[in-house]
Specification:
The complex is a heterodimer of chains A (561) and B (753).
Chain A: H1 3-8, E1 11-13, E2 16-18, H2 28-35, E3 54-62, E4 79-82, E5 92-100, E6 113-115, H3 117-120, H4 129-136, H5 146-159, H6 165-171, H7 182-195, H8 203-212, H9 219-225, H10 227-233, E7 248-249, H11 255-258, E8 269-270, E9 282-285, E10 290-294, H12 299-304, H13 306-311, H14 325-328, H15 333-338, H16 345-352, E11 356-361, E12 369-373, H17 374-377, E13 378-380, E14 383-384, E15 390-398, H18 401-408, H19 418-429, E16 437-445, E17 456-465, E18 468-477, E19 484-485, H20 487-493, H21 503-520, H22 531-549
Parallel strand pairs in A: 1-6, 7-8
Antiparallel strand pairs in A: 1-2, 3-5, 3-6, 4-9, 9-10, 10-15, 11-12, 11-15, 13-14, 16-17, 17-18, 18-19
Chain B: H1 5-11, E1 28-34, E2 40-46, H2 48-53, E3 58-60, E4 85-86, E5 92-98, H3 101-110, E6 112-117, H4 124-129, E7 138-142, H5 145-150, E8 154-162, E9 174-180, E10 184-189, H6 194-205, E11 212-216, H7 231-244, E12 248-251, H8 254-260, E13 267-275, E14 281-293, H9 299-307, E15 318-327, H10 341-359, H11 363-369, H12 389-399, H13 402-415, E16 419-432, E17 441-448, E18 454-458, H14 467-479, E19 486-488, E20 491-492, H15 507-534, E21 541-544, E22 547-550, E23 553-558, H16 559-568, E24 574-580, E25 585-587, E26 592-594, E27 598-611, E28 616-626, H17 634-653, E29 684-689, H18 714-727, E30 735-737, H19 741-749
Parallel strand pairs in B: 1-12, 8-30, 10-11, 14-15, 18-19, 28-29
Antiparallel strand pairs in B: 1-5, 2-4, 2-6, 3-5, 7-15, 8-13, 9-10, 9-12, 11-20, 13-14, 16-27, 17-18, 17-24, 21-22, 22-23, 25-26, 27-28
Helix pairs in contact in B: 6-7, 9-10, 14-15, 15-16, 17-18
The chains are: A alpha+beta (561), B alpha+beta (753).
Chain lengths: 561, 753
């Protein structure tokens, strides 16, 4: 337990700084309801599936200037993008997002601004424009879900770069209304789209406008300037207390589902607050071969990252298939992988992209790094190749053919050191890269489009090298005890001529890959689907990959639905 | 506006549900231990490890109940806690109290339960084969079905299955109980029926009802799930409070709630339907195997509604419908919006679909041809009056541009191989009144305070249907004052006694009429006083918007002055109102009668887009024509129509309540049990309200709205079926909802599940 952090941390709750007299691993929901007595935040399911407990979380995003560049060996840093978890020591602009408080560790809140529905109701006049829109449309029936919806839509106004109806509805994709007033909620959202079309893009200017227009309380403006914040930042970093017995928490979005009421005094090591490793929550682009994604990067930051979008064309299209906005704002890349669910959407995506894992040892004398192909990371059902005292520090995604080939080699040397990874680029594969265009696709079968765990999922990627498909990768989740790479299916396509190929030949290739994929999986029956269904769906979804890739090549006409 | 207060408070997060109420310092928290197999003989429950956790821990069992260990009122088959055997997986078997919620739950988990697993049954048809019924089966026979089938040009038979549905009221079940003076007990319950809770607590505590006070403020959703099934939790909280002599709060976590409580009844049914060559349906037979679960609960009333909606919106001259309440080792299935009618509608529409397939006719042609018409008689002998079935159907085909829509879909399907669309219509005719006739009564208490403000209390529970707003409208209109002056209070057994649950869509009808009666009583006293003050005959007086009118002309006299003057003259400014729906009768022996006050009509059209490759579908648009008659509040009714439709769509296409063969609920959390989210409901949803008509048995000619629109969701299944047939004409139809993606895949692949 880290006494200092747990007992001295300060949180700005609505308009008051408070020091929780409780452990950092307690779900924020219990702190909010039971200690602060703020009962407007409701408990609906305690697993992030209903959104009734949503709160707004404000945090400082470091400004770009003045941050030390992080380096992987000799590969210099070219571009850095920040997620949000790390306190901006050097100042920054606050950002407000909605998160489910039932899955939020209290320790995450150190130095942050928590806004509950009571905070939003404290605006002048007592009814914010979001509340008014709901009132006008009679969008509150039993009322239990209402605070969560108000929080989600208020955060959308504060955070989203898109102020259209589609984005508004995406903002509430993790809020359930059982009554169900979705029609009225949609109409209320439409009112907001109309009313707030003119919000400034600049984050600080927008916050000012939202305070002025009584969407957000004035404390939003005070937060960034608060002296308390500076005080909070002077605390000792949590990572000093990491030992082998301490639970390491990414976002906590799965941990708290499995442990809804952790023991009193539970004090995890929260990855996102590990300030000494500020790189852990950001995207680094080495400009050559790799994207380095800090393990504490939130899923929503991953999909929003410019570097990620540029290097994995079209990936943002698949964002909403991953859980909900609320969960994406909290869940981390590292947590999603370490959780080792055989059907994790992100694991399927990253496997399909040939990702590597950077592992850091934090305990003992050996504070070294090692790298592991993600495929070798999953060793059994919910089991991973992480040794005691180690954490996943980053995920590396190859951005060129060279990176892909390296990633695809499957080589793993437990003794690897930092320099050897970069050395491989410099010496082994050689520069003067052939820039292969990356094709990427993700497919998922679930009962509901949003916020549903897949029955199966699959990702596929390859690079177009001249006219040929190289570094072909097909992943499949929900079909075995671990997320699988379908090597044999991918091998059928490796080196195939793609450019200028006849539709008939592409269709034939699709059929062969599909058949092989169906043979390669070993699914079982459970509540999300029978083995037969899962096997069939993997085949169908592999075909869906092909249809996405080769739609313009007329492949659809050659294939049966 | 006072009645808007509740909405404002909701939006500001200020409304309190059970778990939000302030707790006294000495409050104890309760948790329950659930059984861990479908049927078990209790050998022992050892509290040792639980008690060792903390001195505050108290463990209570069946033997600790001071009264009768029984809350089953129709049939004594529901113990508060089981004594010798439990009947389903997830049944509460012991109550634990402790100083904190965490401690109580931990202590409940620490109980050592020794049991012997006994053979269990989950399939209703297997229960029927073994003759294991909750109560004797019921049947309605009319005309001469056998003979009629002989004369039919087409006769088809088939099997229909519909799954259960979890309520997922966002506020889980809970109760707070407080011991009070002289051995009385005060309970706040998240219930649709405070009187039922009062009865159950009184019975299990061995107290007369006048020593038990029950209050229900507002519910965070209920949908039928808190009609009968709120009682158990109140009884447990009361037991804890009585024995510990401290306040006790019991609030279930989601998993416990889903595992322990009842849901919509799954049905498995067989049908036989026949028509002449023009498509006139001549005969229909159905046998419903209702999976009732382990105890009686509301199963007989739900079966009655099934049997009374067997032919949907259609007139069928000959037939026989039989219903069985099959006992299984599953949680006792219970009320859920629609209450047995959706299951009946689905069976009949499936039969009609099978007939249409056999006759190679479009479904809608058969539907239209056989709709109820004015002065028809229902198959159980009820004269059908003010029938709007054809009107609603016709209006629907207009607003949906049905012919153009079908042509558009055909063109789309011809042009697309990987996507197909389908559309279907579903007409609704839903009877309003409790099928258990004595329940059609209500009371209200109205106070006019000296300052002119008005307080109304009725048996109507506010659970999101905004019945309090409607009752406020009724009171304001009855008294002739602005709505802002009226406040509708929570329901308490102290203010209105012997209430019936707020259910069967009747909440605003019955309680609104009772409130209206009380208001009219006060109004007549005030009118007399006003006539005296204005020196005119009472007939000349009218009150509008808080002003007193004489022969239609405004006078100097206002509401407040009048009230003050009446109080000064020692006139009673309070009144109790009572209402009992007139004209209802039903003979259970002959199965003939007129059990409903009236019917609600409507029709819906749903359009579905099928992704053939990915084996999934999206509801693209929907059109609804609904008969609200003269709505008391159009926005409230719109919310009810859209909401019920979404729940109905969820039931037919998404919500997958899955039990293992061992009786274990597999979909026991919101991560495995998916319900509609905002993107699941169609973006394009057109709701058209039929112009009002007289409806004298309701306040101001309004109509009940809660349940009828749920049926509209059934159109979603048939729309999907059309799309599936477009994708694979030779596919084998299975009338089996929810029709989840796995079933779509099986249909397209032509494999058995």
């Amino acid at each position: 337990m880290n006494f200092e952090r747990d007992y001295c941390m300060k949180i700005l709750v609505n308009n008051k700084w408070v020091s929780p007299g409780t452990a950092g691993g307690r779900p924020a929901l219990d702190f909010i309801r039971l200690e602060l007595g703020l009962k407007g935040t409701k408990e609906g399911c305690r697993e992030g599936d209903c959104g009734a407990c949503a709160v707004m979380l404000g945090e400082l995003v470091p400004s770009r200037s003045g941050v030390r560049a992080y380096q992987i060996g000799s590969v210099g840093n070219k571009d850095v993008e920040y997620g949000s978890s790390v306190l901006g020591r050097l100042g920054g602009v606050p950002r407000y997002r909605a998160v489910p408080s039932c899955l939020l560790a209290l320790g995450e809140l150190a130095g942050k601004h928590l806004i509950t529905i009571e905070g939003l109701a404290s605006v002048p006049g007592g009814l914010s424009p979001v509340m008014k829109a709901f009132l006008e449309e009679n969008a509150s029936q039993c009322g239990f879900c209402s605070p969560g919806f108000i929080i989600s839509l208020s955060a959308w106004l504060a955070e989203s770069d898109r102020l259209d109806i589609e984005a508004a509805l995406k903002a509430v994709d993790g809020n359930l209304c059982r009554c169900t007033g979705y029609g009225a909620i949609r109409r209320a959202a439409q009112r907001l789209v109309k009313e707030f079309a003119d919000l400034p893009e600049d984050r600080m200017a927008r916050l000012r406008a939202l305070v002025e227009r009584a969407v957000l309380p004035a404390s939003v403006l005070e937060y960034a300037e608060s002296a308390e914040l500076l005080f909070a930042q002077e605390e000792k970093p949590a990572e000093e207390g990491l030992d082998e017995k301490r639970t390491v928490l990414g976002g906590g979005t799965d941990f708290y589902v499995r442990n809804p009421e952790p023991e009193a005094g539970f004090s995890p090591f929260i990855l996102g607050t590990a300030r000494a490793y500020s790189e852990i929550a950001r995207v680094d682009n080495d400009g050559r071969h790799w994207l380095r994604l800090g393990a504490a990067l939130r899923i929503s930051d991953f999909f929003a990252s410019k570097a990620v979008r540029e290097n994995i064309p079209g990936i943002e299209e698949f964002e909403t298939q991953f859980a909900s906005t609320l969960i994406r704002n909290l869940a981390t890349l590292g947590g999603n992988i370490v959780n080792a669910s055989p059907v994790a959407d992100l694991s399927a995506m990253l496997l399909g992209l040939g990702a590597w894992i950077e592992i850091r040892s934090l305990s003992g004398a050996e504070r070294g790094l090692r790298w592991l192909n993600l495929d070798a990371f999953f060793t059994g059902y919910k089991q991973i190749a992480l040794m005691p005292g180690e954490i996943v520090a980053a995920i590396l995604i190859p951005t060129t053919s060279e990176g892909s080939e390296f990633a695809g080699s499957g080589a793993y040397d437990g003794e690897q050191r930092e320099e050897s990874l970069s050395g491989r680029f410099e010496g082994g594969i050689g520069f003067g890269a052939r820039e292969g265009r990356l094709f990427f696709s993700f497919e998922k079968a679930a009962k509901r489009d949003n916020l549903d765990i897949a029955a199966v999922n699959t990702a596929m990627s390859f690079r177009l090298d001249d006219a040929f498909a190289r570094s072909v990768r097909i992943s499949a989740g929900g079909v075995a005890e671990i997320p699988l790479l379908l090597g044999r299916a991918a091998a059928l396509m490796e080196g195939s001529r793609i450019k200028g190929a006849k539709a008939k030949d592409l269709a034939e290739l699709c059929r062969r890959v599909k058949k092989q994929a169906e043979e390669d999986v070993r699914p079982m029956d459970d509540v999300r689907g029978s083995a037969a269904y899962r096997r069939a769906m993997i085949g169908r979804l592999v075909q869906a990959h092909f249809l996405r890739f080769f739609a313009r090549d007329g492949i659809a006409e050659e294939l049966e639905p | 506006m006072k009645t808007i207060d509740e909405s404002i408070a909701h939006l500001r997060g200020e409304t309190s549900y059970i778990d939000d109420l302030p707790e006294p310092k000495d409050c104890l928290y309760a948790a329950v231990r659930l059984s861990e197999c479908a049927r078990g003989k209790i050998l022992s429950i050892d509290p040792g490890a639980a008690l060792a956790l903390d001195p505050s821990v108290i463990v209570l069992g069946a033997a600790d109940l001071p009264g009768e260990n029984q809350i089953g009122f129709t049939k004594p088959d529901e113990p508060v806690l089981p004594e010798a055997e439990w009947e389903y997986w997830g049944q509460p078997i012991a109550l634990v109290l402790a100083a904190t919620r965490e401690l109580a739950r931990k202590a409940a988990a620490a109980l050592a339960v020794d049991y012997q697993a006994l053979p269990a049954r989950t399939d209703p048809r297997a229960a029927a084969a073994a003759g294991d019924f909750i109560l004797p089966s019921r049947s309605i026979v009319w005309g001469e079905a056998e003979k009629a089938f002989e004369n039919c040009a087409f006769v088809v038979t088939g099997k229909v299955d519909s799954g259960g549905q979890e309520h997922v009221y966002l506020e889980t079940q809970g109760a707070y109980a407080e011991p009070r003076d002289n051995g009385t007990i005060f309970v706040i319950s998240s219930t649709q029926g405070p009187t039922g809770v009062q009865q159950a607590v009184a019975r299990s505590q061995g107290l007369p009802m006048n020593k038990v006070e029950v209050e229900a403020r507002r519910l965070g959703g209920a949908f039928g799930g808190k009609e009968d099934q709120a009682a158990l939790w109140a009884c447990l909280a009361a037991l804890g409070a009585r024995l510990s002599k401290r306040p006790v709060k019991l609030y279930l976590d989601r998993k416990t709630d889903i595992r322990a409580t009842g849901k919509r009844h799954p049905y498995s049914s067989d049908f036989k339907i026949g028509a002449d060559k023009e498509g006139n349906i001549l005969a229909f037979e159905a046998e419903y195997f209702q999976n009732s679960g382990c105890s009686c609960d509301l199963s007989p009333a739900i079966l009655a509604r099934t049997l009374l909606h067997a032919t949907g919106s259609y007139r069928v001259p000959n037939g026989k419908v039989v219903g069985h309440m099959c006992r299984t080792n599953l949680p006792s299935f219970t009320a859920f919006r629609g209450f047995g009618a959706p299951q009946a509608f689905f069976v009949f529409e499936a039969a009609l679909d099978a007939l249409a397939q056999a006759m190679k006719l479009p479904r809608e042609e058969l539907q239209r041809k056989n709709l109820y018409r004015e002065d028809d008689s229902s198959y159980f002998g009820m004269p059908m009056k003010s029938v709007r079935a054809e009107e609603a159907f016709g209006r629907l085909t207009e607003i949906a541009s049905w012919d153009a829509l079908k042509a558009e879909i055909n063109a789309f399907n011809a042009a697309h191989r990987f996507e197909k669309k389908g559309a279907a219509i579903l007409p609704v005719c839903f009877g309003i009144s409790f099928t258990k006739l004595p329940m059609n009564q209500a009371g209200a208490l109205v106070h006019v305070y000296q300052d002119g403000s008005v307080l109304v209390s009725t048996g109507a529970i506010e659970m999101g249907q905004q019945v309090s707003r409607k009752i406020g409208v009724v009171a304001a209109r009855s008294l002739g004052i602005p709505l802002e002056w009226v406040r509708v209070e929570r329901t308490s057994t102290l203010t209105v006694a012997n209430t019936v649950p707020t259910a069967a869509s009747t909440g605003s009808d019955l309680n609104g009429m009772a409130a209206k009666a009380a208001c009219e009583e006060i109004l007549s006293r005030l009118t007399t006083k006003a006539a005296e003050l204005l020196s005119c005959p009472a007939e000349a007086i009218a009150i509008r918007q808080g002003r007193i009118l004489e022969n239609g002309k405004e006078t100097a006299l206002g509401w407040k002055e009048l009230v003050e003057a009446a109080h000064g003259s020692r006139i009673d400014l309070s009144a109790h109102g009572f209402y009992a729906t007139p004209g209802l009768f039903y003979d259970m022996k002959t199965e003939r009668g007129s059990p409903f006050a009236y019917h609600v009509y409507g029709a819906a059209c749903v359009v579905v887009r099928l992704d053939v490759l990915r084996a999934r579908c999206k509801v693209e648009s929907a059109y609804i024509v609904h008969d609200s008659s003269n709505s008391l509040d159009e926005k409230v009714d719109l919310g009810q129509i859209e909401g019920a439709f979404a729940q109905g769509l969820g039931w037919t296409l998404l919500e997958d309540l899955r039990f293992g063969p061992d009786g274990r609920l597999l979909s026991d959390s919101l991560s495995t049990y998916k319900l509609p989210d905002i993107s699941f409901v169609p973006e394009k949803l057109v709701v058209d309200i039929l112009p009002g008509k007289d409806n004298p048995l309701t306040p101001f000619n309004s109509k009940a709205v809660g349940e009828p629109p749920l049926q509209y969701g059934i159109a979603g299944y048939f729309a999907l079926l059309e799309a599936l047939r477009a994708a694979k004409p030779e596919g084998e139809t299975r009338y089996d909802i929810p029709f989840i993606p796995e079933k779509i895949e099986a249909f397209l692949r032509g494999r058995a599940l």
